[in-house]
Amino acid sequence: MLRFFVIFLSTFLVFSCKDSNIPADSFISLGDFSLIPEVKEYESTSGILELGADVSIEWEGVVSEFIYQEIQSEWDEIMSGSHSDESSTELEVIVDDHHMEYQHPEEYCLTIEKRDIKIEASTLVGVYRGWQTLRQILYLSNQKSIGTGVIRDYPRFDYRGTMLDVARHFFSVDEVKRYIDQLTFYKINYLHLHLSDDQGWRIHINSWPELTAIGGQSQVDGGDAGFYTQKEYQDIVAYAADRFVTIVPEIDMPGHTNAALASYAELNCDNKKRELYYGREVGFSTLCVDREETYQFAEDVIRELAEITPGPYIHIGGDETHATPEDDYIKFVNRVMPMVGKYGKKVIGWDEINLGELPQDAAVQFWASKENAQNAVKKGSKVLMSPASYAYLDMKYDSLTPIGYNWAGYIDTERAYSWDPELLVEGINREDILGIEAPLWGETITNSEEIEYLAFPRILGYAEKGWSDTSDSRTWDEYKIDLVAHGAILERLGINFYRDPKVNWTLDSD
Ligand code: TNX
Q: Which one of 74, 210, 293, 320 is the catalytic residue?
């Protein structure tokens, strides 16, 4: 009887694997993929799917031509040179907006079966997040076969972002798009653009054209500066939207405004234009809060920005206003914050805006003052978590990092991973948190290579903190093993990342 059972069992095993003729050690089971961010839940079943070199997509429900094309071309790219040249994988994409089981718009279900793969969601954004998981599986499979099973996944926070400072150094439309492409792979869904500062004004405003004619011409240390026309900005916004990334534009006021003060005399209390600024120090400039022109300016800028920004937020800055007395600061933000609501958007500001009367739907970006963040929560606002000493992408990894700052300490990949947004500030709990954002200030970076060097690999950890629950989370020792595989992917994608010595990278280039 026992003998019969063994024979039966082995016949069964051989049979179940035989479909694809694959020896047991040449497939990866679903739970063994080093997915970042970690998925909410998965279940492995006993079959194996042999990935084909081509994909045939069958689509049900609302179609996105963009996602369709992306899947086709990425599949070709990733699977090029695959051994299974003859076969094609069937991919079913199902968008079912009546699907009541899905609680979250970004939720998706990815099913790997012996003969096909299915991505199901109630929205296109859900499909896109599911596709990114599948895309990682394709890269990580190294053209081996994959174990069958099901992944069910949705995010912890609605806002998982990064900020790019295009004011200190200007970055071209293509450089911004390149960064957006890289973010989507890790399910990051907000890109905050810091569009104005002392060193430059980067978005054309029709009613105040000198802002870019004059203020757009400078940057840190000089060199080729520039600005986005409204058309170019809208091009970035649309490019991001196709990839389900929302742009949050920031105009920093009332400090960090030298570029505006150099463009228009009437924004200065002494009615004299300032010189353009090429340095790095902060905190010396302020709009003249007693002049009506200042509020006309602020309202025009907010109105024009709101018109070309489909996303829900406008960021008004509000940080480091050392040249604005506190009473003046409060007076300024109290007049300007409601303007954002007037044009149909919600305010975000650095944590200092808590000193003013926060509109009901405002969000406060915590970077320095716990007290500001805690008080904002007490008043009913949400907090965007960007603690400088854990989440600032412009901090050096260690003392040898050639670019970046260290005023908030060194942040290596381990430190960037070793904090939790829900446990960081007393009194700020999950329901008070809008999400997390990792800002990349631009004083020391001038090109994509440098953006990538500071952002990667730390940003993978931030993406995971935003997407995956703490209760499901792994330790740094577990995470750093998964990072190894992503090093190989980043290398393949041509992303210039920091080879943190705490990770045992196995790279072609080494
Ligand atoms: C602080 S963080 C700033 C920026 C600088 C950055 C450099 C914040 C709200 N303000 O103006 O670029 O430090 O790390």
A: 320
